[in-house]
């Protein structure tokens, strides 16, 4: 059921994008850092979307790498703490005689 819903959702997104591209066929002047270009509005929107998606994935990837590094550090600290606790439990008790 979830697979069918996903396919339907992707088809709707594709049809929406195709219709936006069809109805926005006029050209606009895009001024960028090193010049300018005449491109279609749909291409400009798609290009902007792709750039935003790539930047988002890069930032999320960096965040995930930091979190994985922190997980490794915390696991090592947990291992060290468990070893210390085991050693403390194995010490003989010094009681009063």
Q: Please state the CA-atom Rg, rounded to the nearest Å.
A: 29 Å
Please indicate the percent range of residues in DSSP E strands (runs of 2 or more): 5-15%
Number of strands: 2
Q: Specify the overall morphology.
A: elongated
Low-confidence stretches: none
Break the fold down into its secondary structure elements and pairings.
Layout: H1 2-23, E1 27-32, E2 35-40, H2 41-89
Antiparallel strand pairs: 1-2
Structure, described:
This protein is an alpha+beta fold. Helix content is 73%, strand content 12%. Strands 1-2 form a two-stranded antiparallel sheet. A hairpin with a 2-residue loop joins strand 1 (27-32) and strand 2 (35-40). The longest helix has 49 residues, at 41-89.
Write a brief caption for the model.
The protein contains two helices and two strands. The protein has 97 residues and is of the alpha+beta class. The chain has a domain at 1-56.
Could you list some keywords that capture this structure?
two-stranded antiparallel sheet, 73% helix, single chain
């Amino acid at each position: 059921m979830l697979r069918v819903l996903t396919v339907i959702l992707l088809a709707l997104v594709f049809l929406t994008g195709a219709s936006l591209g069809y109805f926005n066929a006029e050209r606009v002047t895009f001024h960028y850092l090193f010049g300018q270009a005449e491109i279609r509005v749909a291409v400009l929107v798609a290009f902007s979307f792709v750039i935003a998606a790539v930047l988002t994935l890069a930032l999320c990837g960096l965040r995930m790498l930091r979190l994985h590094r922190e997980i490794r550090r915390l696991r090592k600290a947990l291992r060290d703490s468990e070893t210390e606790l085991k050693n403390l439990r194995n010490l003989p008790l010094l009681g009063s005689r």
